[in-house]
Write a structure and sequence with these properties.
Structural class: alpha/beta
Oligomer: single chain
Number of domains: 1
Order of helices and strands: EHEHEHEHEEHHEH
Distance between the termini: 47 Å
CATH superfamily: LmbE-like
Largest sheet: 7 strands, mixed
Length: 240
């Protein structure tokens, strides 16, 4: 069940968070803050597995990451709905959770559900702060929406060092046994079920980490730049 958290991670499908920013979620939890996960669809259109299997796997993954809760909404997989009804439902979740920071998919992602989810989160986060829009909970607007990256790689705003939580992230990814590479599986082959897909995830983590002088990194895009108090600390450990 949703409850107040410091950070709220919103994805279109189960496994989006693990694949894109699970290390950051685990790092937030290790720092003593709280984080929750919400996905906007049941993943019923996925080629492998079923919505029920993915739900069980997602709950196992959430435990590995240390999330305070994981909730699944039903905005329609393979055609994610972004109407007023869905907007109000997401606003209610944001008001109930009252996060300081929202994480959402990048708005120009390859999968249309991801792009729609990213735009929906931006709009719902803004409207959630308008007091005259009435829902069960009081108005609340997060301080920022941070976009995580899956396929398309835009110019990133910042990179989080997730070296210490990378293995936790990958353990959470491995919880989705129905979705990713398994040499013994007879399920249909898909792009994300190939061995090369997990190798790409590893390579991308190393690439983003190299940008900040770390072993592994996770990159984010935001419309508003982050506040930096110590420029030497922000750029420490990098070679020029």
């Amino acid at each position: 069940m949703t409850k107040p958290v410091d950070a709220l991670f919103i994805g279109a499908h189960a496994d989006d968070i693990e694949l894109c920013c699970g290390g950051t979620l685990a790092k937030i939890v290790r720092s003593g803050k709280s984080a929750g996960i919400v996905e906007l669809t049941r993943g019923e259109m996925g080629t492998r597995g079923t919505a029920e299997i993915r739900l069980r796997e997602s709950l196992d993954a959430a435990k590995i990451l240390g999330a305070s809760f994981r909730e699944q909404l039903d905005f329609g997989d393979g055609g994610l709905r972004t109407g007023r009804a869905e907007e109000l439902q997401l606003m209610e979740v944001i008001r109930q959770c009252r996060p300081q920071i929202l994480f959402a998919p990048w708005i120009e992602e390859r999968h249309p559900d991801h792009a729609r989810a990213g735009r929906l989160v931006i709009e719902a986060a803004f409207y959630a702060g308008l007091r005259k829009i009435e829902t069960k909970h009081e108005a609340h607007r997060p301080q920022a929406v941070l976009h995580f990256i899956q396929w398309h790689v835009p110019a990133v705003t910042f990179v989080v060092d997730v070296t210490e939580t990378w293995q936790t992230r990958m353990d959470a990814v491995a919880a989705y046994k129905s979705q990713f590479f398994d040499p013994n599986s007879s399920a249909p082959r898909t792009k994300i079920a190939e061995r090369q897909f997990l190798e790409m995830i590893e390579a991308r983590g190393i690439h983003f980490g190299s940008l900040i002088g770390a072993h592994y990194g996770e990159a984010f895009v935001t419309a508003q730049p982050p506040k930096v108090n110590d420029i030497f600390a922000a750029y420490g450990g990098r070679e020029v």
